[in-house]
Amino acid sequence: MTNLQQSPESSATAVTTRRRWRVICAVVAVSFLTILARVGISGAKIDMARDLGIGDVTFGVVFGAFAFGYAVFMLPSGLLADRWGPRKSLALSVFFWSFFTLCTGLVSGIAVLIGIRFLFGLAEAGVFPQATRAVHNWTLPRERGLALGLLNTGSRLGAAFGLAVIPLCVARLGWRASFVLLGISGAVWSAVWYAWFRDAPTAGSGGHANQNASLAPLGERVSGDGAFISRRGTGEGVPNTEPSPVIMEPSQSANPNRAAARGKFPWQAFLRSRNFYLIIYQYFACNFAFFICFSWLLPFLKTRFALTPAQAGLYASIPLYAGALATWSGGAAVDWIYQRGRLKASRAGPAIAGFALSIVTLCVAPYMHSPGWFIACFALMTYGVDVTLSSSWTVCCDVGVEYSGTLSAAMNTLGAMGSLASSLLFPLLMNWTGSVKAYFYIAAVLNVIALVCWKYIDPARTLLHGASPKLATESENCQPGPQPSYSQCGRSSP
Hints:
Helix 14 packs antiparallel against helix 20. Strand 2 (228-230) and strand 3 form a beta hairpin. The chain has helices at residues 8-43, 45-52, 56-72, 74-84, 86-104, 110-124, 127-138, 141-173, 175-196, 211-215, 250-253, 258-261, 267-271, 274-290, 297-305, 309-338, 343-364, 371-400, 404-433, 437-456, 471-474; strands at residues 221-222, 228-230, 237-239. It is mostly helical. Strands 1-2-3 form a three-stranded antiparallel β-sheet. Helix content is 71%, strand content 2%.
């Protein structure tokens, strides 16, 4: 077999591969920190309300100020990701949410607190669309599912960690110092990201990483002529079955954001796309079912099952750990199916299975009369909707291409609307009906519609360029439509 370990090209590829994994680790870390900062106010609510003299109704306005700011700036932040690139835009988003988190620890009145939480929502709005753009720039389509699944795993682990640890920090350090520490941690990440990250794999490589190095699947090495891939941990070469890269002009491939940065924004392409409406609706349904984990689940458990705060907190964290497992396994499933040459099935399959599981458990959970069985059903529901996340964010890269940041931002905006609707409807329906059944049935119906949406979402049809659906079946395929060489591959017809 061919030994590639001494090849300069394979050495350059190994460096590029390691850096791509570091990029993935960096966006997972910012996902963890972002949600940790977001749930911080929940862990500090009791102490803040006491010190600032805020009642529950007024504190609801504080929560709402964040949600409003988050929804308002989501789409503009996605545009910034596509025009400026994820290096600058993500660094700015994290810096500003860090600054406003720190300022939260310095407030002395309700009006200032509401204003700061609104600005905090504006700043946090860009993190996930901009991180998605970074993953799009640095990964192949065959590995994006796992990368984006891990991005969402970070958010679930951040929430579970925050709900458990922040109350302890508040008890020991006080709520003001806790917010200051959260702000400092985000600011450090922002500075490191801006100094280290580059928008494209070919940038900052010192001229050593060639096109084949940029296209090497994670954990593998490609020879200089692209003919062989060396297996992980060995020097043995095997034939390279990856499709040949589509090489674009250096001036075009050097900046993956160039196409989005020039000319007018193609609003008509978005509004005329069936994919656009299907993608954003199914994410609304997903978040409507999930968001109760962040809002009403803990107080509901305390009231319905007469639990202590410690017991309710333990039960409430279980669905979040189920969600973390789901985002990882969903991403792995997306990539596994894709690598077998089934583009549409790789996106739709895990999403349909996840929504089907959530529909069944949403219908069963209201009839559980013990906290253990109720949480078991609810954790399965959370697992189901979170399995769909990797499909959702990956298909934004497939369909959006150079506007993947904007499309993912639009999707996340509708997700925020679903979260807001969930947080408002749950207590209203409880008051009107005296039961959680109405809320769970509505969530189940919304998920049925979302499941049907995935039957018609076509990842092979991009917003701007369109594509023949059989592109997805005639090759192992990557992505239709022009995009930088490090994120697209294709096979010519025989």
